[in-house]
From TrEMBL:
Organism for this UniProt entry: Staphylotrichum tortipilum
Membrane topology label: Multi-pass membrane protein
Locations listed in the record: Vacuole membrane
Domain of life of the organism encoding this protein: Eukaryota
Descriptive protein name: Probable transporter MCH1
Assigned GO CC terms: fungal-type vacuole membrane
CDD domains: MFS_Mch1p_like
GO molecular function, a single term: transmembrane transporter activity
The keyword Heme is assigned to this record: no
Family listed: Belongs to the major facilitator superfamily.
Regions crossing the membrane: 55-77, 89-109, 121-141, 161-186, 198-217, 237-259, 444-467, 473-501, 508-529, 563-582
Keywords, sorted A to Z: Membrane, Transmembrane, Transmembrane helix, Transport, Vacuole
Pfam families (UniProt xref): MFS_1
Length: 595
């Protein structure tokens, strides 16, 4: 009997002529090729990757710190009424346009981010931001001119620039969505696989919450209106918009170079191994003749020859084939995980809960400026200086940021941790790490607690806690800011814990789309209540107000109380939905999912 051949060519000649079984997903990986990535990567390349990963964090934080510029809307929203003589419906039309544009394209942008990477998204965001703010600045100038000559409907409506203003805020909303998604996805994939996944997500989300605070301070201090007729502290909106346009274009360019996912192939390989081990994916189904997947999780529709037959015959794999192989595998796995996410009934329950929580918070933040104005009727003789919208935008930003960091840190320390950083399939694949002497508190418990704080703030406002007492409004804005910030931080953290990080941008994008409708609905509800109160108060000028503003401005509890009582009830409904997803029939607890 002759000894086995040792030469690769001899080995190849002894291969059977019949097709061999299709290899599993894991065996098709670059790590299973003749030489592994780790063994061929030079020390210089490893250092470059470490540097790239390190630079991605400050770049993501910078992008997030600037992405939330639209949250400073309350800083100048009241000037649309005072200067442009917009109705409350028209002001909310701008806020709603931005909110819809900020949330509606999130699934599409998240899908693109997972597959093309965050850098193109950041660059596109910078361009869209620049166009949007410049368009809004031009529109504002036109509206000021129209208001001066009464072209906006006799001082009771928008002029010729309103359509351009709406288009500008739509672009601003899309830019916000794209830049925020690129920053959060970078941190989730580069730093969200370890023990500190909560903090990894909380950092950019907290930075996003800070953006409204620091930008409102910049606007109220560096861009004050020079018009002698301007109110004290009134912002020069045109100059402020031009500044934001330039700033965000620069940040987008920086993000195009600094936002990179490091070792993404390893992330996909780990996901493949986990999913194959759980039995959720069958690697033999990846390629069939013609390049189509058979199990419905997604298909590569381009007709092409099976690359693995070619590899068997040749015994080699060049870099181009390896790259194409990794790309196809990544697409197939991400499509499979998207399908699983969409068919999980608890996801829809959780997403509806997010919808009912975030909508009221968005409506409060967007309308905070006009709400504050209702607290100070012209007939009220108050001592001291009235509180300003800029102050409360900052309070919301500070409390929101602090709570986002707090919840990210506390959930890392106190919440149970699954063994896998990928999608949790069954009880056996995701047991919690044992903890000693440290109590375990579910992330859902944190979410429900802070949602209750959010509803408390809304109910306090609706009950008249701050009416004629603007000095108390900081309690309302602080409670709403804390609840809103925690919900926005904990929701994506819970998504990564249950459904993994490799498809995070797509999954989070699907859930984040829901608040768009919520913010619009509650904005319209508030506008209707406000406008009804203004008309009830108004046939004549109120408290000496200019007749041009009669039927536009409203004062007192009747301007907002019914709307905010309904918003508080909405948050209570949301808590019930999240509780059902967690503890209800076939919920996370029954399925053994660690959260």
């Amino acid at each position: 009997m002759s000894p086995p051949p040792t030469n690769p060519s001899e080995t190849a000649s002894l291969l059977p002529a019949s097709p061999s079984p299709t290899p599993s997903l894991r065996s098709l990986s670059p790590a299973a090729s003749t030489t592994t990535t780790s063994s061929t990567t030079t020390a210089a390349t490893r250092r470059a990757r470490r540097l790239q990963r390190a630079l991605s964090l400050p770049t993501a934080l910078l992008a997030a710190l600037c992405a939330g510029s639209v949250t400073a809307f309350s800083l100048y929203a009241h000037t649309f009424q005072a200067r442009l003589r917009y109705t409350q419906f028209q002001v909310n039309g701008l806020a709603s346009a931005a909110s819809l544009a900020m949330y509606a394209p999130v699934p599409l942008l998240g899908y693109a981010c997972d597959r093309a990477g965050p850098a193109p998204l950041a660059l596109g965001a910078g361009v869209v931001f620049g166009v949007g703010y410049l368009a809004a600045a031009v529109a504002y100038g036109r509206e000021v001119a129209d208001a001066a000559v009464g072209a906006g409907g006799g001082g009771d409506g928008a002029g010729r620039g309103y359509g351009l203003m709406v288009a500008g805020f739509v672009a601003i909303g899309v830019g916000t969505c794209a830049m925020y998604m690129s920053a959060v996805a970078t941190c989730a994939k580069n730093f969200g696989r370890g023990r500190h996944r909560g903090l990894a997500l909380a950092l950019p989300i907290a930075a996003f919450g800070l953006s409204g605070m620091w930008l409102s301070q910049v606007g109220s201090r560096l861009f004050l209106s020079r018009d002698p007729a301007a109110e004290e502290g009134e912002v020069d909106v045109v100059r402020f918009f031009v500044f934001l346009a330039g700033l965000l274009v620069v940040v987008g360019v920086i993000g195009a170079f600094g936002l990179r996912i490091v070792d993404e192939r390893d992330l996909i390989e780990e996901a493949v191994e986990e999913l194959e081990r759980s039995g959720f994916l069958d690697g033999s189904a990846l390629f069939t003749p013609g390049g189509r997947a058979e199990n419905g999780y997604g298909a590569v529709v381009t007709e092409r020859a099976d690359p693995f037959d070619e590899l068997e015959n040749a015994g080699i794999k060049n870099a181009e084939e390896e790259e194409e192989e990794a790309r196809i595998k990544k697409q197939w796995v991400l499509n499979a995980e998207t399908r699983r996410f969409l068919t999980d009934h608890t996801m829809w329950c959780f997403a509806l809960g997010f919808f009912f929580m975030i909508g009221p918070g968005e409506a409060f933040i967007n309308n905070m400026g006009t709400v504050i104005k209702t607290l100070y009727p012209p007939t009220l003789h108050y001592v001291g200086k009235p509180t300003s919208p800029a102050t409360h935008v900052s309070i919301v930003g500070i409390t929101s940021t602090a709570v986002r960091l707090l919840t990210g840190t506390l959930t890392d320390l106190l919440a149970p941790s699954p063994k896998t950083s990928h999608v949790q399939i069954t009880t056996l694949s995701s047991p919690a790490h044992p903890r000693s002497r440290i109590p375990s508190v579910s992330r859902v418990s944190f979410l429900l607690f802070f949602a209750a704080l959010l509803s408390l703030g809304l109910a306090a406002l609706a009950g008249g806690f701050a009416q004629d007492r603007g000095d108390r409004f900081w309690i309302v804005s602080g409670l709403v800011g804390a609840g809103y910030g925690a919900v926005f931080s904990l929701t994506p953290i819970i998504i990564t814990v249950i459904w993994g990080v490799e498809n995070f941008a797509t999954n989070w994008g699907i859930v984040a789309m829901f608040p768009a409708l919520g913010a619009t609905v509650w904005g319209l509800v508030y506008s209707a209540v406000y406008q009804t109160g203004a008309e009830r108060q108004g046939g004549s000028a109120v408290g000496g107000e200019s007749s041009n503003n009669s039927n536009l401005l409203c004062y007192g509890k009747e301007c907002y109380a019914p709307a905010f009582w309904a918003m508080a009830a909405s948050v209570w409904i949301a808590c019930g939905l999240v509780l059902w997803a967690w503890k209800g029939k076939n919920g996370w607890a029954q399925r053994g999912i660690v959260v």
